[in-house]
Amino acid sequence: MSGVDLLILAAHPIELAGLRAALGSRLRGHVQDLSVAATDVGVGLTVAGAGAMRRLLEDQPRHAIILGSFGRYPDGDALIPGQLLIPTTFRLIDTAVLEGHAAFPAPMPVTALPDGAFSDALVHGSDDLLRGAVATTLAITQDDALAHKLGARSNCIAENLEAMAIGVACSAVGVTWTALLGCTNTVGAHGRAQWAANHPLAAGTTSAHLLAWLAAGAPGLPPSAPKGAAT
Q: For the whole model, what pTM was predicted?
Protein backbone atom coordinates (compact mmCIF):
# COMPACT_ATOMS: atom_id res chain seq x y z
CA MET A 1 0.00 0.00 0.00
CA SER A 2 1.35 3.44 -0.85
CA GLY A 3 0.30 7.05 -0.96
CA VAL A 4 -0.87 7.50 2.64
CA ASP A 5 -2.00 10.92 3.75
CA LEU A 6 0.09 10.95 6.93
CA LEU A 7 3.14 8.93 7.97
CA ILE A 8 4.10 9.03 11.65
CA LEU A 9 7.81 8.37 12.26
CA ALA A 10 9.28 7.54 15.68
CA ALA A 11 12.67 6.34 16.83
CA HIS A 12 11.42 3.81 19.40
CA PRO A 13 8.37 1.48 19.28
CA ILE A 14 7.19 2.67 22.70
CA GLU A 15 6.50 6.10 21.19
CA LEU A 16 3.83 4.53 18.97
CA ALA A 17 2.10 2.35 21.56
CA GLY A 18 -0.68 4.88 22.16
CA LEU A 19 -1.65 4.83 18.49
CA ARG A 20 -2.55 1.13 18.37
CA ALA A 21 -6.10 1.63 19.62
CA ALA A 22 -6.81 3.90 16.65
CA LEU A 23 -4.63 2.27 13.98
CA GLY A 24 -4.57 -1.40 15.01
CA SER A 25 -1.64 -3.75 15.51
CA ARG A 26 -0.24 -3.01 12.04
CA LEU A 27 -0.24 0.72 12.80
CA ARG A 28 -2.08 1.47 9.60
CA GLY A 29 -5.64 2.67 9.15
CA HIS A 30 -7.94 5.65 8.81
CA VAL A 31 -8.74 8.45 11.23
CA GLN A 32 -11.63 10.54 9.94
CA ASP A 33 -10.90 10.94 6.23
CA LEU A 34 -7.11 10.54 6.46
CA SER A 35 -5.16 7.38 5.75
CA VAL A 36 -2.49 7.10 8.43
CA ALA A 37 0.50 4.80 8.92
CA ALA A 38 3.13 4.76 11.69
CA THR A 39 6.51 3.12 12.09
CA ASP A 40 9.65 3.17 14.21
CA VAL A 41 12.83 3.96 12.28
CA GLY A 42 15.66 3.26 14.74
CA VAL A 43 17.40 4.86 17.69
CA GLY A 44 20.19 7.37 17.08
CA LEU A 45 21.31 9.71 14.35
CA THR A 46 23.18 7.03 12.43
CA VAL A 47 20.14 4.85 11.64
CA ALA A 48 17.06 7.04 12.01
CA GLY A 49 17.52 8.91 8.74
CA ALA A 50 18.00 5.72 6.74
CA GLY A 51 15.02 4.06 8.40
CA ALA A 52 12.85 7.08 7.73
CA MET A 53 13.89 7.27 4.08
CA ARG A 54 12.99 3.62 3.53
CA ARG A 55 9.45 4.13 4.82
CA LEU A 56 9.02 7.45 3.04
CA LEU A 57 9.81 5.78 -0.26
CA GLU A 58 7.53 2.84 0.51
CA ASP A 59 4.51 4.81 1.74
CA GLN A 60 4.88 7.98 -0.34
CA PRO A 61 3.05 10.12 2.23
CA ARG A 62 1.60 13.57 1.66
CA HIS A 63 2.71 14.63 5.15
CA ALA A 64 4.88 13.28 7.95
CA ILE A 65 5.01 13.84 11.70
CA ILE A 66 8.01 12.96 13.84
CA LEU A 67 6.68 11.62 17.14
CA GLY A 68 9.23 11.37 19.92
CA SER A 69 10.65 12.55 23.22
CA PHE A 70 13.08 15.18 24.40
CA GLY A 71 15.31 16.10 27.27
CA ARG A 72 15.07 19.75 28.29
CA TYR A 73 18.28 21.67 28.82
CA PRO A 74 18.52 22.98 32.40
CA ASP A 75 17.33 26.57 32.56
CA GLY A 76 15.83 26.87 36.03
CA ASP A 77 12.34 25.64 35.10
CA ALA A 78 10.95 22.61 36.90
CA LEU A 79 10.83 19.34 34.98
CA ILE A 80 7.32 18.61 33.70
CA PRO A 81 7.24 15.00 32.44
CA GLY A 82 5.02 14.67 29.40
CA GLN A 83 5.09 18.39 28.54
CA LEU A 84 4.67 18.79 24.79
CA LEU A 85 7.06 20.57 22.43
CA ILE A 86 6.58 21.46 18.78
CA PRO A 87 10.05 22.46 17.57
CA THR A 88 10.68 25.52 15.43
CA THR A 89 13.97 24.14 14.11
CA PHE A 90 16.46 21.33 14.64
CA ARG A 91 20.19 22.01 14.91
CA LEU A 92 23.05 19.55 14.64
CA ILE A 93 25.21 20.11 17.73
CA ASP A 94 28.75 19.00 18.50
CA THR A 95 30.69 20.09 21.58
CA ALA A 96 33.99 20.42 19.72
CA VAL A 97 32.34 22.64 17.08
CA LEU A 98 30.77 24.88 19.74
CA GLU A 99 34.18 25.28 21.39
CA GLY A 100 35.95 26.06 18.12
CA HIS A 101 38.01 22.84 17.98
CA ALA A 102 36.20 21.37 14.96
CA ALA A 103 33.99 22.50 12.09
CA PHE A 104 31.15 21.10 10.06
CA PRO A 105 32.01 21.08 6.33
CA ALA A 106 30.04 23.65 4.34
CA PRO A 107 27.90 21.18 2.29
CA MET A 108 26.78 19.33 5.43
CA PRO A 109 23.21 20.05 6.60
CA VAL A 110 23.30 21.43 10.14
CA THR A 111 19.67 22.57 10.44
CA ALA A 112 16.28 21.13 9.54
CA LEU A 113 13.16 23.30 9.46
CA PRO A 114 9.70 21.86 10.12
CA ASP A 115 6.91 23.34 8.03
CA GLY A 116 5.65 26.43 9.84
CA ALA A 117 1.98 26.12 8.88
CA PHE A 118 1.94 22.41 9.72
CA SER A 119 3.56 23.10 13.10
CA ASP A 120 1.04 25.84 13.88
CA ALA A 121 -1.82 23.51 12.94
CA LEU A 122 -0.56 20.80 15.27
CA VAL A 123 -0.67 23.18 18.24
CA HIS A 124 -4.45 22.60 18.06
CA GLY A 125 -5.50 25.16 20.64
CA SER A 126 -3.12 24.07 23.40
CA ASP A 127 -1.73 26.94 25.45
CA ASP A 128 1.00 25.08 27.34
CA LEU A 129 3.00 23.71 24.41
CA LEU A 130 6.67 24.61 24.25
CA ARG A 131 8.06 26.07 21.02
CA GLY A 132 11.77 26.47 20.31
CA ALA A 133 14.93 25.07 18.75
CA VAL A 134 15.97 21.48 19.46
CA ALA A 135 19.53 20.16 19.37
CA THR A 136 20.29 16.84 17.70
CA THR A 137 23.40 15.28 19.23
CA LEU A 138 25.22 12.04 18.46
CA ALA A 139 25.10 10.88 22.07
CA ILE A 140 23.07 11.53 25.22
CA THR A 141 24.53 14.37 27.29
CA GLN A 142 25.15 13.00 30.81
CA ASP A 143 27.16 15.78 32.45
CA ASP A 144 25.36 18.68 34.16
CA ALA A 145 27.97 21.31 33.31
CA LEU A 146 28.04 20.21 29.68
CA ALA A 147 24.23 20.28 29.52
CA HIS A 148 24.21 23.92 30.70
CA LYS A 149 26.93 24.77 28.16
CA LEU A 150 25.20 23.09 25.22
CA GLY A 151 21.89 24.77 25.96
CA ALA A 152 23.43 28.21 26.35
CA ARG A 153 25.78 28.09 23.36
CA SER A 154 23.39 26.41 20.93
CA ASN A 155 20.34 28.54 21.81
CA CYS A 156 18.37 25.29 21.96
CA ILE A 157 15.88 24.43 24.68
CA ALA A 158 15.98 20.65 24.28
CA GLU A 159 17.90 17.64 23.04
CA ASN A 160 16.79 14.75 20.82
CA LEU A 161 18.96 12.18 19.05
CA GLU A 162 16.99 11.40 15.90
CA ALA A 163 14.60 14.13 14.81
CA MET A 164 16.96 16.14 12.62
CA ALA A 165 17.97 13.07 10.60
CA ILE A 166 14.31 12.16 10.06
CA GLY A 167 13.47 15.73 9.08
CA VAL A 168 16.31 15.86 6.54
CA ALA A 169 14.97 12.65 4.98
CA CYS A 170 11.47 14.14 4.73
CA SER A 171 12.76 17.32 3.11
CA ALA A 172 14.90 15.34 0.67
CA VAL A 173 11.81 13.69 -0.83
CA GLY A 174 9.61 16.78 -0.67
CA VAL A 175 7.29 15.68 2.14
CA THR A 176 5.74 18.38 4.31
CA TRP A 177 6.70 17.58 7.92
CA THR A 178 6.69 18.69 11.51
CA ALA A 179 7.43 17.15 14.92
CA LEU A 180 5.67 16.56 18.23
CA LEU A 181 7.86 15.65 21.21
CA GLY A 182 7.11 14.82 24.85
CA CYS A 183 9.40 15.70 27.75
CA THR A 184 11.10 12.82 29.57
CA ASN A 185 13.96 14.41 31.50
CA THR A 186 16.26 17.27 32.29
CA VAL A 187 19.47 16.83 30.28
CA GLY A 188 22.38 15.91 32.54
CA ALA A 189 23.52 13.41 35.13
CA HIS A 190 20.02 12.19 36.08
CA GLY A 191 18.63 12.15 32.57
CA ARG A 192 18.85 8.42 31.90
CA ALA A 193 16.97 7.49 35.08
CA GLN A 194 14.34 10.16 34.43
CA TRP A 195 13.92 8.93 30.84
CA ALA A 196 13.28 5.39 32.04
CA ALA A 197 10.66 6.62 34.52
CA ASN A 198 8.92 9.13 32.25
CA HIS A 199 9.16 7.77 28.72
CA PRO A 200 5.79 5.94 28.82
CA LEU A 201 4.05 9.10 30.08
CA ALA A 202 5.67 11.23 27.37
CA ALA A 203 4.65 8.73 24.70
CA GLY A 204 1.10 8.78 26.01
CA THR A 205 0.80 12.56 25.91
CA THR A 206 2.16 12.88 22.39
CA SER A 207 -0.13 10.13 21.09
CA ALA A 208 -3.18 11.58 22.85
CA HIS A 209 -2.54 15.07 21.45
CA LEU A 210 -1.97 13.77 17.92
CA LEU A 211 -5.08 11.57 17.98
CA ALA A 212 -7.22 14.42 19.28
CA TRP A 213 -6.02 16.60 16.40
CA LEU A 214 -6.75 13.85 13.89
CA ALA A 215 -10.16 13.15 15.41
CA ALA A 216 -10.99 16.85 15.00
CA GLY A 217 -10.33 16.49 11.27
CA ALA A 218 -6.66 17.60 11.30
CA PRO A 219 -7.59 21.32 11.25
CA GLY A 220 -5.06 23.53 9.50
CA LEU A 221 -3.29 20.68 7.70
CA PRO A 222 -1.45 22.46 4.88
CA PRO A 223 -1.42 21.35 1.24
CA SER A 224 1.22 18.77 0.48
CA ALA A 225 4.36 19.84 -1.35
CA PRO A 226 4.71 18.88 -5.03
CA LYS A 227 6.30 15.46 -5.29
CA GLY A 228 10.05 15.64 -5.70
CA ALA A 229 10.28 19.19 -4.38
CA ALA A 230 12.44 19.70 -1.33
CA THR A 231 10.89 21.74 1.48
A: 0.93
